[in-house]
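Sample pair:
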Amino acid sequence: MNNKLIRPILLLSVLAGLLYMQSCKTKRSIIKKPLKEKGTDFLLDKMSESELNFDYFSARCAITMISDKKSKSEFRGQLRIQKDSAIWLSLSPALGIEVARLMITPDSIWFINRIDNNYFKGDYDFINSFFQTTVDYDILQALLIGNDMIYYEDDNFRAAIDAMDYRLGASQRSKMKKRLLQGDNPNILIQNIWLNPDHFKIVKVNLKEFGEENKQLEMRYSRFTAVQDQLVPTQLEMLLQADKKVRISIKFSKIDIEKALSFPFNVPSKYSKMP
C-alpha cells in the first residue's frame, strides 16, 4: 500500500481509538458518579410523591414459584385490587381454565379450590403460615404494587446511600395505633427500603420481624412502565426465607388503573369447607 495512504489511515485509527476511550471514560464517570446525600424527610417525601396513586388496579400476571426443594409451579392469572379494601386473584394453568380464586380483605381470607371442589374462609393465620411471619393487608397491598406501607409509622427511618441507590432503614417500625383492628397483636418490623435515585420508586424492600431475624421477606422491583403517567413495576421478585425458602416471580402485563372493577366471589353450594 502507498505510504501516503498508510499515514492518514493510521492517524484515523488512532483518533477513533482515542475518541472511543474518551467516550468510555465519560460513560463510566456518569455511571459511577457518587450520589449526593439526602435527608430522611427529603427521601420520604420523594418516595411518597412517586408512589402509585390509584383506586383500582388490574393486571394480567404470570407467576412462577420455586421452593428450596427446587419444585416449580407456574400459573397465569388476573389480579385486581381495590385500594385498602380487597385483593382478588384468579389463577389458571396454561390451558386457561380457572383452578383457584383468592379474595383478601383487611380482616378475612377467602380461597376457592376448583380442582378439589372445596373452599377456605379464615383470617390471616392462613397467609402467615405460608409467609412464616406476620403480614397484614397493608403489607400485602404495598408489596404487590411497589408502594410503601401507608399505615405504618415512619418516624424511625434513617437515610443512607447504598451503592447507587438511596436506602431508608428502620430498626423498629410498627402499625399506627388508629389502624389496628380489634384483637390485633401489632408486630414490630425491621425494614429497609431502596429507592432509585432517578425516579425515587422503590426497587427493593427487606422486611424482618423484630426478634425473628432468621425470617425475612425480600421484594425486588424492575422493568418500570408508564401507566397513565405513573411508573409501575412489571417485574417482581419475592424471596421468603424462614424454615424453608420460597422464590416467587411475578410479571405484570396489561395494567389498568382507571377502570372500576368488580370482585366476583361465589362459593358453589356443592363445595365443602376445608378443615
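Residues 2-30 have pLDDT under 50 and may be disordered.
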